[in-house]
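Run log, item B.
One chain of 197 residues. Sequence copied directly from the ordering sheet:
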Amino acid sequence: MPFTLPSRTPPGPRRRTLLASAAGTLVLAGCSTPEQSTDTTAGSTPSAADQARARAARDSETLAGRYTAVIAVHPALAERLSPLHAEVVRHAQAFGGTGSSPSASPSATASSPASPSASPSPSDSASASAASAHPSASPSVPVREKDALSDLASAERTLADERTKALLEVPGELARLLASVAAAGAAHAFLLTEGAK
């Protein structure tokens, strides 16, 4: 039986492997570069992506303000709501916001559980819409903890739905961020409603 020596291959990577890895690295680097604005004129209006990012930051800051107001009115909920509040602040920062809640003094609104047929008065709905339209307006917090949690869950759900709808209008990286934050908001809504049961 003849003894055959193995073919001598040079140690280290082959040229073909190096070229393939270099090409792969360039492709990956090209995919992960930040998208540049196509605006060439100085002082022009912000792009749709910039507007969506600013709106998302503002919405997160407003939501953080609602968490702050609920915690101020219902200190017993602070342990439960603080981690969710911290996440909402991080979401605002991820969108380029300051992460600080709008300055607002919370006001507790009396909810009358004795009269189930009571409907909100036009002035109540006007003040609620004003509070959602203007982040600096004082958010009203229900007196009952269960109602306050329900309001927060509703706000989280609404914001998650709005962000999900906005996904088609924004470029890739911002769309991924919006999708991630919308999923987190849906999880927050679930956690808020589960504890109320």
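Observations after the first pass:
- Residues 94 and 177 are 8 Å apart (CA to CA).
- The chain has a mean pLDDT of 74.
Flagged for discussion on Thursday.
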